[in-house]
Amino acid sequence: MIFDYEELEFYDETTRKRGTIYRPKIKVNLIKRGFRLFPVDCLLDSGADAIIFPTDAANYYKINYKKGRQITSQIAGGGSTIFYELPFEKHQISIFISDIHIKEKICFSEGQKTPLLGQDFFKYFKIAFDRFNKKISLDLK
Questions:
Q1: Is residue 125 classed as helix, strand or coil in its secondary structure?
Q2: I want to staple 58 with a disulfide (CB 3.0 to 4.6 A). Which of 63, 94, 98, 103 is the partner?
Q3: What is the C-alpha to C-alpha distance for residues 63 and 9, in angstroms, rounded to an integer?
Q4: Is residue 110 helix, strand or coil?
Q5: pTM
């Protein structure tokens, strides 16, 4: 599977210049017991240990994420955040990408805005980031 990097426009207040950045994002579908949620844009993040979603996803499916194992984790930039880790049996949210169905633990974080697909997602795929051509390829292991 090949995906394009997402193009984001920004404005730098300091330099008063506009610019463009590219991010390795892919769309996935979240499904719980056959109920499909609209496609979710997720950032592929090799620095994230887990699959991390905003708590909005848990709230949408009426999952009490605070019953999960609480983890305090260091984040980029030196800060820390709290995640609530739930095994698949507790949240029952499947991640679909194309015709591939992943049942994996998910962490939910109140401070998380961008869904992250970290190392727990990477273990299913051989992933290549081609920043020059702005392409991501995922091959099932």
A1: strand
A2: 63
A3: 34
A4: coil
A5: 0.88
Per DSSP, the residues of 19-77 read EEEEE-EEEEEEEETTEEPPPEEEEE-TT-SSEEEEHHHHHHTT--GGGSEEEEEE-TT
Q: Residue 36: which pLDDT band, with cuts at 50, 70 and 90? A: low
Q: Which two tokens stand for residue 136?
A: 């991501």
* Nearest to 118, CA basis, from 50, 53, 71, 54: 50
Paired sense of beta strands 25-32 and 2-4, if any: unpaired
Enumerate residues 6+ apart whose C-beta is below 8 A from 17.
11
Residue 46 belongs to a domain with what CATH number?
A: 2.40.70.10
Q: For the chain, how many structural domains are there in total?
A: 1
21 located within any domain: no
Tell me whether residue 12 is in a domain. no
Query: What is the extent of the structural domain holding 100?
Result: 27-126
The verdict on residue 78 lying in a domain is yes
The pLDDT-based confidence of 73 (bands split at 50, 70, 90) is: confident
